[in-house]
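Q: Given only this backbone (97 positions), what sequence would you predict?
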C-alpha cells in the first residue's frame, strides 16, 4: 500500500474531521448496500451490484479511515505498530476455547 500517497492526499483534503466522519458513514452505507444486493436481500431485487462491488467499498472505507488517521497526525510506522498489536489481540481472541 502506498501510504505516502494516501498521507499526501489526506493532508491536502479540504474536508474537516466531521465531514470525513460523515463520508466514512456514507461509504459504510455503500458497503451495506453491496452486501444486501449480494445476498439478494428483501427489497434489493431491483438493484444491481455497483461498479465497485463489496471489495471496492471496503477499499473506500479503508481510504477514508486512513485519511482521518493521517489528518490527526498519525504516522505510518505507528499505524503499522497499532495494526500489528490489534492483529495479535485478534489472533489471541480467536484462539480462546
Ligand atoms: Mg464507495
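A: Predicted residues:
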Amino acid at each position: 500500500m502506498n501510504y505516502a500517497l494516501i498521507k499526501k492526499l489526506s493532508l491536502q483534503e479540504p474536508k474537516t474531521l466531521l465531514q470525513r466522519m460523515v463520508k466514512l458513514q456514507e461509504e459504510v452505507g455503500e458497503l451495506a448496500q453491496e452486501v444486501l444486493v449480494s445476498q439478494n436481500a428483501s427489497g434489493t431485487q431491483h438493484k444491481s451490484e455497483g461498479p465497485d462491488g463489496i471489495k471496492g467499498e471496503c477499499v473506500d472505507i479503508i481510504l477514508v479511515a486512513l485519511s482521518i488517521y493521517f489528518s490527526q497526525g498519525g504516522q505510518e510506522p505507528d499505524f503499522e505498530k497499532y495494526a500489528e498489536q490489534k492483529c495479535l489481540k485478534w489472533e489471541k481472541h480467536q484462539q480462546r476455547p
